[in-house]
């Protein structure tokens, strides 16, 4: 089978799976919990045409496993076309010093799906919405360009990035080193407050790193050129 036919077959399968998908759609691309308010709410809509169970799960990132939030309700019935309000309650007793990053999964589990007819195959798919959760400390000012606070260092084909700010910085993993065509790849799409990452890099003599930052809500903005300090 040719590559073109394989691509068409894959696209057809994807479309057919999407047609059978049961979707729980939150009204935001990121959940922001402000410490001073103590909680945040997200409205999740059942876009399927039948009753479904909404299962909400909080997930820790590997770098931060401290339990800071409680979600309620973790499981609820949502009628087709209706919405469920999900609350995220901050529970830490110690004041936060920097933004914290968690994740939340919204998953719809259909109920009452009709039985498959004899001789016909059915593929059931539940759509999982996996969103970041940012916990914002009390008294910390809003920063719409936190990536400008990153500092970059290059030594012996190793690029280092330091985040000495209290903000979570979201950005694409691929980096360019200029002038020239040097490259580096971050291990993930965020740099946490106080974190220092080291990655292999090509492009000896580069003076600038070009990154593709993202807003707090995950939307890409114009590329940003940051100076590199040679060591």
TrEMBL record:
It is found in: Periplasm. InterPro entries: Ig-like_fold, PapD-like_sf, Periplasmic_pilus_chap, Pili_assmbl_chap_C_dom_sf, Pili_assmbl_chaperone_bac, Pili_assmbl_chaperone_N. It holds the Pfam family PapD_N. The keyword Chaperone applies. Keywords: Chaperone, Periplasm, Signal. The keyword Signal applies. This is P pilus assembly protein, chaperone PapD. It comes from the Bacteria. Belongs to the periplasmic pilus chaperone family. It comes from Pseudomonas extremaustralis. Residues 23-140 form the Pili assembly chaperone N-terminal domain. Its main location: periplasm. Residues 1-21 form the signal peptide.
């Amino acid at each position: 089978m040719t590559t073109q036919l394989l691509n068409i077959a894959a696209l057809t399968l994807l479309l057919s799976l999407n047609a059978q998908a049961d979707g729980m759609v939150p009204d935001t691309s990121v959940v922001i919990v402000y410490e001073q308010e103590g909680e945040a709410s997200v409205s999740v809509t059942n876009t399927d045409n039948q009753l479904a169970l909404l299962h909400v799960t909080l997930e820790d990132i590997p770098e931060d496993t401290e339990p800071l939030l409680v979600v309620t309700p973790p499981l609820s019935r949502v009628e087709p076309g209706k919405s469920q309000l999900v609350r995220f309650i901050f529970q830490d007793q110690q004041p936060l010093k920097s933004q914290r990053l968690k994740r939340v999964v919204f998953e719809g589990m259909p109920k009452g799906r009709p039985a498959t007819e004899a001789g016909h195959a059915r593929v059931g798919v539940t759509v999982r919405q996996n969103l970041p959760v940012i916990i914002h400390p009390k008294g910390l000012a809003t920063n719409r360009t936190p990536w400008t606070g990153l500092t970059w260092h290059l030594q012996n084909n190793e690029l280092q990035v330091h985040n000495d700010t209290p903000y979570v910085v979201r950005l694409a993993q691929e980096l360019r080193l200029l002038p020239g065509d040097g490259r580096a790849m971050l291990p993930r799409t965020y740099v946490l407050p106080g974190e220092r990452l080291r990655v292999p890099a090509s492009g000896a003599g580069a003076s600038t790193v070009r990154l593709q930052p993202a807003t707090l809500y995950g939307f890409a903005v114009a590329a940003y050129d940051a100076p590199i300090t040679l060591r």
